[in-house]
Amino acid sequence: MATASKSHQVSRRRRHSVHPLQRLLDYGHQYRKQIWLAIACSILNKFFDLAPPALIGVAVDVVVKQQDSIIAQWGVKDVFGQFLIISLLTVIIWILESVFEYAYARLWRNLAQNIQHNLRLDAYKHLQDLELAYFEERSTGGLMSILSDDINQLERFLDVGANDIIQVATTVVIIGGAFFVLAPSVAWMAMSPMPFILWGSFAFQKLLAPRYANIREKVGYLNGRLVNNLSGITTIKSFTAEDYENSRVAQDSNAYRQSNAKAIQLSAAFVPLIRMLILVGFTALLLYGGMAAAAGTMSVGTYSVLVFLIQRLLWPLTRLGETFDQYQRAMASTNRVMDLLDTPIAIHPGNMALPVETVRGEVEFKNVTFAYKDRLPVIKHLSLQIPAGQTIAIVGSTGSGKSTLVKLLLRLYEIKTGNITLDGIDLQDLNLRDLRRCIGLVSQDVFLFHGTVAENIAYGTFEASEEEIIMAAKVAEAHDFIMHLPQGYETIVGERGQKLSGGQRQRIAIARAVLKNPPILILDEATSAVDNETEAAIQRSLERITVNRTTIAIAHRLSTIRDANCIYVMEHGKLVESGTHDQLLQQDSVYASLWRVQSGLR
Asked: What DSSP string describes 245-307?
């Protein structure tokens, strides 16, 4: 394990040494053809966009030299004919510029949407496959900011920024080439600021990178706070903590604002500095080029072209700061998304198929020890056997490790030592999804999705018919209250089922398990948070659905498990007693003491 951990750390450092742009290109390798096509269209669009100044120079040459102009050398001496040729070339160039602008806009935007869509799906799918411990160590809001805000940031850059960078580079190459072809004597003066501009751009990029990484971190904290508060709005209201939470949100929002302010302070200086550098080249061209044209060593047409071209170079370079700003934000987001995708899946998926219909349901824990990360073991050398088709109960004080056993059986966590078997097969060898399909869980903390009652009952058994849904609800004694809801089975339950009472949510959860019809049923404190009448109804339904099914009942109320085939008592991660209800009372130990407390007999 230590070797594997060290290997993971080395591979993680290696990933971080790769530039985020390279990580993005590696991810989007299936789009390479579309990327190259989009780049080609961006370059061609910019080429035709820069052509009109050349036509202006040709037109000035016709006005000044007439029969001795460049076009006249092609054999067209008539001035009107020369202007017709210029006009025709203008129409063709403008049409081609528009065609390639449409093409690159469509290609880049579709590319951005496709990568955004696939990246979000891949990140979410990978997130679902990670172990439960990963989610316990991170805030929901932070993960949401990666799946939503970071991926959207990347989409915004691909939509506009990538094209801007390509077109700026194309502009520099074309205009630089034109300068050295048309007027090599002044070209070096006009282009002399270019190396400093490029060096300054990369220098700004390096300075901005850590600032934008900090921004992404701060927005993750802010999103985490907001998601957490919205989920706990009832608690906030009941404890009149609105002002306190306002101040905490303000604190996180201000930290985000301050991080942005530090980045803005630097990025805002980029354009003014670039303008000053461009001013040097423009002034040199204006002065020395003008003197050369006046002296006759440079034609007026060439001088006109150069003046127009230097202007066309000015504005794209002043936008370079904004483009690099988008780029750095996108790269910071890319690193966060790729880090998520590169997070190794700790739980082995298993490779042995487990058809549900073949499962008998015999479960055995053999010398199992388990500890949550950076904590002392909560399960210590525990061994217990659950015969197929029987109902066993596990009781004990809070923190004794009862619910942890359920998580280990579902392989939400991996055990440290020992092993757990199902029908004699080690859980680690079984296909993980097949294993979970044969287990039905009804927990104390019922989670209902925003949707209809019917959709929540059929969750996990999505192909169920309406008749099967209703039958499951009747077995769970939920049908009657469902029919009294405004739209019956089509009633929207609200987020987390907030429109229903705790007992109603519990019965829908039982109906969900009934419809799944698993060979193993786990009841984790299923009746601890309901009233006596609801508890009686749930107990009646449980008596029916536990027949000939392996049932594991984690219980706080001992009255609900007194008829179990065997009751295990846990304390501090160990089994301290086992037997039937009557046998445990006769032992007059931990269970008997708990029973006396709950029944009021002490």
From this structure: HHHHHHHHHHHHHHHHHHHHHHHTTHHHHHHHHHHHHHHHIIIIIHHHHHHTSS-HHHHHHHH
* DSSP per residue, 391-414: EEEEEESTTSSHHHHHHHHTTSS-
Residues in CB range of 587: below 8 A, 6 or more apart = 577, 579
> Are 21 and 331 contacting, i.e. CB atoms less than 8 angstroms apart?
yes
SS3 of 137, please? coil
pTM, 2 dp: 0.74
Q: What is the pLDDT of residue 2?
A: 40
Tokens of 334: 């890319």
Query: Per residue in 34-56, pLDDT tens?
Result: 889 999 999 999 888 887 777 77
Judged against a pLDDT cut of 70, whether residue 410 lies above it is answered with yes
Contact present, 570 and 368 (Cβ < 8 Å):
no
Q: What is the DSSP letter of 498?
A: T
Structural domains in the chain, sorted by start: 17-342 (1.20.1560.10), 358-599 (3.40.50.300)
Q: How far apart are CA 183 and CA 526, in angstroms?
A: 86
Please, which residues bridge with residue 520 across strands?
A: 439, 550
3-state secondary structure of 330: helix
Contacts 24+ apart (CB under 8 A), 98-106: 100/41, 100/42, 100/44, 100/45, 100/48, 101/45, 103/41, 103/45, 104/38, 104/41, 104/42, 104/45, 104/163, 105/163
Residue 127, classified by CB atoms within 10 Å of its CB into exposed (0-12), middle (13-18) or buried (19+), is middle
Which residues contact residue 180 at a Cβ distance below 8 angstroms, ignoring those fewer than 6 apart? 187, 191
Asked if residue 184 lies in contact with residue 300, where contact means CB atoms within 8 angstroms, the answer is no
pLDDT tens track for 354-409 = 888 888 889 999 999 988 887 888 888 889 889 998 888 898 877 788 888 888 89
CA 402 distance to own-chain centroid: 33
Q: What is the CA radius of gyration of the chain?
A: 36
Residue with tokens 């089922």: 497
Beta bridge pairs of residue 384: 365
By DSSP bridging, strand 391-396 and strand 566-571 are: parallel
Amino acid at 336: R
